[in-house]
Design a protein that fits this description.
This protein has one domain (10-112). It is 25% helix and 35% strand. The protein is α+β, with helices and mostly antiparallel strands.
Amino acid sequence: MVNLGQKVTLSELLSKIPSNEYDWYIFEIDAVGIAPDGMTMSEFEDFVLECDYGYKISWSKLLEFSKSISDLNNLILVSSTRAVTFKEYEESNSTLLVTLEVRDSSFWEVVFYNLYN
């Protein structure tokens, strides 16, 4: 979806996903705000890119983190039945539950896969 040139917030996008107890994995993030674990946002962005399985975060921590983001440019966020590599994410959706992608601040897509299986 495109927000007609208006930037979207992570909190706004997460509100489109039902509350859950799944593990979430951040594979890419380019944002302005307060990063988790005492890192600067730049350190966190680099750390996320270096993680083979993405940065694992619970739903409750993700909601909390979303409130600390003031500007979101790019994001790849995945919920899966098990940890997956970025390559697995790109090639197969058999273990995926939900994906959320943001590009250029205003294009976003939420895809539900096996959420209700």
